[in-house]
Amino acid sequence: MTALQEKPKAVAPSGPPPRRRGKRATALAGTDKLVLALMLGIPTFVHLLFVWIPTLGSVALSFSRWNGIGGFEDIEWIGVGNYVEIFTEYPRFWPAVQHNLIWLLFLLIVPTSAGLLLAVLLDRELRFSRIYQSALYMPMVLSLALVGFIWQLIYTPDGGLLNSVLGLDKPVDWIGDSDINLYAVMVAAAWRHTGYIMLLYLAGLKSVDPALKEAASLDGASASQTFFRVTFPVMKPVNIVVAVVTVIEALRAFDIVYVINKGRNGLELLSVLVTDNIIGEASRIGRGSAVAVILLTISLGVIIPYLYQTFSKENRS
């Protein structure tokens, strides 16, 4: 009876013993958090210090009249007086706007077309295509100031490369003549800009699905029809990037014209007016800041729609 009354012993379950739940491991150690905070904090601080604070300061000073001498208590707040003066009484403003528009149209037509043509040729896997790509992109590595120095030597009236090649009886003053110097400098800017556009379009051509081209050729489309009706429309995102980059490049053009002749004698641009008013002989901080705000507003009118379209696509996907 005692044996029958004994409770049966529990049989240990087969398999590995259950693991004990320990404390959850921390994702980042204390040192890693410090390094991450420094990596994010220092660039953010530098960006705020050198970009956003001066930008907001320029917006505030655009509503003032100040020559930069004395303290902030000497600032005279005049509302929108600087903007009214710029649009109605400042004789250099509208010629500068016209020059920026000419600069933009030139970059949209000449280097964009040349860059697209070069990208199409290099996409055909030509021999030594890598060397060609490097050589054509090399000017983009140079700063606009250095490009200005190089083309100064090319455009020099006496002994310059261009006049020597042309062999004219009367040398042309490519930089000193106000009727042609803007177009001469735009050629120099296009020489630098073409390589960048070529690289953007070459990346876009590499991303096009080859099946689309094969389907178009099977339907009897020629090479030009395939490109303009199939390949080029597919590269719409690249075309938008090229347009935005070109607009920004045209608006921020400053170094090359300032190196050549300080943006005078037919080379006035909006960026040059900002510099002339702020650090010129007669400092007009308020008017220079107002021109800078106008330039910023035009730039944001291009950048914000592009960013909105880009992020809305990412959210939809």
UniProtKB/TrEMBL annotation:
<keyword id="KW-0762">Sugar transport</keyword>
<feature type="transmembrane region" description="Helical">
    <location>
        <begin position="180"/>
        <end position="203"/>
    </location>
</feature>
<comment type="similarity">
    <text>Belongs to the binding-protein-dependent transport system permease family.</text>
</comment>
<keyword id="KW-0472">Membrane</keyword>
<keyword id="KW-1133">Transmembrane helix</keyword>
<protein>
    <submittedName>
        <fullName>Multiple sugar transport system permease protein</fullName>
    </submittedName>
</protein>
<feature type="transmembrane region" description="Helical">
    <location>
        <begin position="238"/>
        <end position="260"/>
    </location>
</feature>
<dbReference type="InterPro" id="IPR000515">
    <property type="entry name" value="MetI-like"/>
</dbReference>
<keyword id="KW-0812">Transmembrane</keyword>
<keyword id="KW-1003">Cell membrane</keyword>
<feature type="transmembrane region" description="Helical">
    <location>
        <begin position="101"/>
        <end position="122"/>
    </location>
</feature>
<dbReference type="GO" id="GO:0055085">
    <property type="term" value="P:transmembrane transport"/>
</dbReference>
<dbReference type="InterPro" id="IPR035906">
    <property type="entry name" value="MetI-like_sf"/>
</dbReference>
<dbReference type="Pfam" id="PF00528">
    <property type="entry name" value="BPD_transp_1"/>
</dbReference>
<keyword id="KW-0813">Transport</keyword>
<feature type="domain" description="ABC transmembrane type-1">
    <location>
        <begin position="97"/>
        <end position="306"/>
    </location>
</feature>
<feature type="transmembrane region" description="Helical">
    <location>
        <begin position="134"/>
        <end position="154"/>
    </location>
</feature>
<dbReference type="GO" id="GO:0005886">
    <property type="term" value="C:plasma membrane"/>
</dbReference>
<feature type="region of interest" description="Disordered">
    <location>
        <begin position="1"/>
        <end position="23"/>
    </location>
</feature>
<feature type="transmembrane region" description="Helical">
    <location>
        <begin position="34"/>
        <end position="53"/>
    </location>
</feature>
<dbReference type="InterPro" id="IPR051393">
    <property type="entry name" value="ABC_transporter_permease"/>
</dbReference>
<feature type="transmembrane region" description="Helical">
    <location>
        <begin position="290"/>
        <end position="308"/>
    </location>
</feature>
